Amino acid sequence: MRDPLLASAFAMMLASPCLAADPWGLANEKVATFPAKVVDLLCAVGGVSCPADCGGGKRQLGLLTAEGKLYPAVKGSVDFAGPAADLAPFCGKTIFVDGLLVENPAMTMFFVQNLRERENQPWKPTEAFRTQWSARNGDPDDWVRKDPQAKAIIAADGVFGIKGLKSKSPDVTNPELKAP
Asked: Are residues 105 and 43 in the same domain?
């Protein structure tokens, strides 16, 4: 940037301790930033099967606040991907999360868009899923349609996850369907 004042303002904005997540326009959503302990949801709710590493990124994780509220962490920054890859390294630790809290009578959940270990650190987007996926499979563009594991599951169980269940709409079962 050529303007030093603009460059300075931009740098301060990036280092800001208050980062507002990007709203998605969901019903009952609100932008929220708070400290929380990363926990294994199965262990926190049921008290059983509590691996020390929260399942190594293969289990559903949650965020436990100091007030005792437990929020399932169900979404990260990558389309159609959860935040487990980003949160697993912090199993049992308190971190700061920034995202969207969706409070619905049926279920309350948290979409983690950014995180950091300490309050004075810069925010880090929850993109570990994409990084790990591309290390295994190459180019992450349109990963949803390219994922070999998802393709194998769909081939075995169909697009609805139930063998033999067919849609009346040809668009739903067309594997070559392109996003608009």
From this structure: yes
* Whether residue 31 sits in one domain with residue 80: yes
Tens of pLDDT, residue by residue over 77-88, are 888 888 999 999
- Model confidence pLDDT, tens digit, residues 139-178: 878 888 888 988 898 889 988 888 888 777 765 555 555 4
pTM value?
A: 0.75
How long, in residues, is the chain?
180
**Radius of gyration for the alpha carbons in the chain, expressed in angstroms and rounded:** 19
Q: CA angle at residue 48 from 114 to 60, to 5 degrees?
A: 25
- How would you classify the pairing of strands 108-116 and 124-125? antiparallel
Q: Could you give the count of Cα atoms lying within 13 Å of 37 in the half-sphere of its Cβ?
A: 14
